[in-house]
Task: structure prediction
Amino acid sequence: MAKQRSKNEIKKPRINEELYGLREVRLIYKEHKEGKSDKDFNKIVSMYEARGLAKEYQLDLIEINGNMTPPIVRLDDYSKYLYNLKKLQKQSKKKTTTLKEIQLKANISMHDLEIKVKKAKEFLKEGDKVKVVLTLKGRELSRREESKKCFYEFIEMVTETGHAAFDCPPRDEETKSYVIFKKK
Result:
């Protein structure tokens, strides 16, 4: 029965002596991370020559892509290579903030407003930004300030706990009013 890998475990590439049965490979070597060096190369060589270069530079042959013809092999320190892979994996897991939108109407009931406030607080707790949009229609536009009471009430309810701050202060655009909150 095959051993199952955890989600955090990295699939380790074949290295050095595990690279058997290959006649030639595309060998990649980069001396420094920044800039180009005279010693950098990317060329197709025989496996015998690749092993010779690995001994000369005192580095490992690491298979990058075995599905290509010829397979791509990197000349690098194996422990550094694994460290960089883990570092990249951690960076890709970092959560990016998303913008969640909550829509309001001028004639919303108090109970519905409280539910939307609760949902907005949940989004903020998760680290997301929340955009609250009030859309006005017809007569609501002629009585704009009276129609925006629920919008101001929403803002007050979200900011009263002190966990939310304005990412963008309240603004008006034609028939809509909006505000963007972020986690404090």
Observations:
- The chain has two domains: 16-91, 99-183.
- The chain is about 35% helix and 30% strand.
- The chain has a mean pLDDT of 85.
